[in-house]
Amino acid sequence: MSADILLANGKLPIGRELVEGCVAFRSGRICYVGKEVSSPRARERIDIDGNVILPGLIDAHVHLRDLGQASKEDFLTGTRSALSGGFTTVLDMPNSIPPTDSPENLAQKMEAARSKAVVNVGLYGAFEPSLENARDLARLGVVGFKVFTTRRQPMDGDDDSVIEKALLCARQAGVPVAFHAEDLKTIEGLELMYKASGSSSPMVFADAHPPEAESIAVARIVAICEKTKANIHFCHLSTKESLRIVIAAKTRGLPVTCEVTPHHLLLSEREVSSQGGIAVVDPPLRRGCHQHALVDGLKHDVDLIASDHAPHTLQEKVSENPWNISPGFPGLETTLPVMLTAVNHGMLTMTRLIELLAAKPAKVFGLSSKGSLSVGHDADVTVVDLERRHVIDPSEFESKAKYSPFKGFNAIGEAVKVFVAGRIVMDNGDIMAEPGSGSIVLRL
Ligand code: NCD
Ligand code: ZN
Ligand code: ZN
Ligand code: ZN
Question: From 207's CA, which of 51, 186, 306, 422 has a CA 20 to 30 Å away?
């Protein structure tokens, strides 16, 4: 049988090697991966110019802000940002307005995504206090639940018995629970103290969110996981100690996974002194010893890399009062170039990068037809030029948030073509996808 499209003259990552090869699509699925000589006949042939064909990349942690916070980002700008950065699937966090904690709110968000998104979008759900909605949200296909241990709304993340019940509920529903783990009481106490000090430095955010706040919460969640055996995932680990606790939990056989961000791997607390509020993020950028531990963890222990794309308006980033600075910054357009540069510099291998940005996120969040270049999988593909150099310039971002602590970063490598469901949707930075051409991905 013939194919619709043949991506010809490319290179495929096979083991540790890059091997000449091609990929073909039929009816939105991959129908061939291998040498060109034995490839099927195709209606259309697209020359990949010797670039590297990767499985479509998945960003398992983004905040696309649609509905009530569309001044920061929406599904169109957020998913255009994803395409520009080489991602074919993004998983959207539920701390939106309204929160994704009921079937009605989920339906409303799905509707917005369906009409605007240009890549595949999966949605996380949030628990509400009664946990009554969780089963319905799971039935409707949320890819995971998200709990902030630093928030008492919509569910009290500081109460062990509440978390235990939520984990039991998630285990029954067969859905993993992702945690933003930081200890609320530690942070509340320090915030009081630093607010009283009257400091106006943006560094106070990091002072009030010390490494221990994270490791205390990680240890607490692991202990609850020990009782419930629910699948749990730690978002954006940023400290040496919390990674150590997660590794120990894995060694004991607990169903625990974890992610790190490019900014915690490559940037340090010094960025806040040089860039101010732009570099404020939760958890904060840390000292070098934590960065080194996370980089070491990339070899075996870290499961995935996610951007934690958290756009805010510029105004919300540069407030004079440090307590009014919104933590977070966009990451969809920096993650891949920054991580390809890291591969180029020998920080990790290409094979590992593909696991961290495609295979593992697909596995953890139940996207069974994504994450690898396999026959029968969805025809989502990211083509990268490993040598192309460019300086990161946030004024060119597709995201509404046109700033980044990676501004001026000398990147080596970026996405040059992106295919979603077998159609070319990004070519050399030009986006040809129509709003609404993306699909909702469900964990079912
Ligand atoms: C995120 C946001 O703005 O929604 N901010 C951040 O600094 N990472 C929330 C979060 O992921 O913790
Ligand atoms: Zn978080
Ligand atoms: Zn986040
Ligand atoms: Zn570029």
Answer: 306
